[in-house]
Amino acid sequence: MLGAETSIHDEIDDDLRAQCAPLGIDPVQLVSQIAKEGGPPPFELWPEHLDAYEVFFACRRQWRVEVGMGGAYFQGLDFSAVDVVMKHLGIPRKRQREVFLQVQVMEDEGVKVLNA
Q1: Quick one: how far is CA 52 from the chain centroid?
Q2: What residue spans define the domains of the chain?
Q3: CA distances from 103 to 79, 84, 111 (A)
Q4: Which of 6, 4, 113, 1 is nearest to 57 (CA)?
Q5: pLDDT for 4-13, tens place per residue?
Q6: Of 47, 55, 60, nearest to 101 (Cα)?
Q7: Please, are residues 50 and 98 in contact by the beta-carbon 8 Å criterion?
Q8: CB count, 10 Å around CB of 85?
Q9: Which one of 10, 17, 36, 41 is at 20 to 30 Å from 27 when CA atoms are compared?
Q10: CB-CB contact of 86 with 96 (8 Å)
Q11: Which residues contact 25 (CB under 8 A, 6 or more apart)?
């Protein structure tokens, strides 16, 4: 099972504070509720989803974020970054469409969690 041995790296650090200060954003808004509660429970990852998980995890800092008077809103992943990550991870070209669609499912759920 993956997840049991990994920890969430979604945390407020000095770099995040420095980026938020000039924009007047509370950095707590940019940290997911799951991370605030200590991280998600362990989970089972089916082998056919491993590539998509690795791509999604590698893109964890590639979110498009709108910042305004109401705070921060996560729009979704930067798809050009997803493409680069797939190439760097060596995802075979014939599997890239399938992996991309799986990443989009995770992205849709991630947007819900991050904007909750």
Answers
A1: 12
A2: 14-114
A3: 10, 14, 12
A4: 6
A5: 444 334 667 7
A6: 55
A7: no
A8: 19
A9: 41
A10: yes
A11: 67, 71, 72
Q: State the average pLDDT over residues 86-101.
A: 96
Q: What is the structure's pLDDT at 15?
A: 81
DSSP label at 42?
P
- Looking at 41-45, 67-71, 91-95, which range is the least confident one? 41-45
CB 71 within 8 A of CB 29: yes
Model confidence, pTM? 0.66
Contact 74, 61 (CB under 8 A): no
How far, rounded to the nearest angstrom, does the alpha carbon of residue 15 sit from its chain's CA centroid? Answer: 18
The encoded tokens of residue 36 equal 């605030």
Cα–Cα nearest to 53, from 96, 106, 91, 101: 106
pLDDT tens track for 47-78: 999 999 999 999 999 999 998 888 889 999 99
Q: Which of 18, 19, 13 is nearest to 31 (CA)?
A: 13
The C-alpha atoms of residue 81 and residue 85 are separated, in whole angstroms, by: 6
* Residue recorded with tokens 């910042």: 67
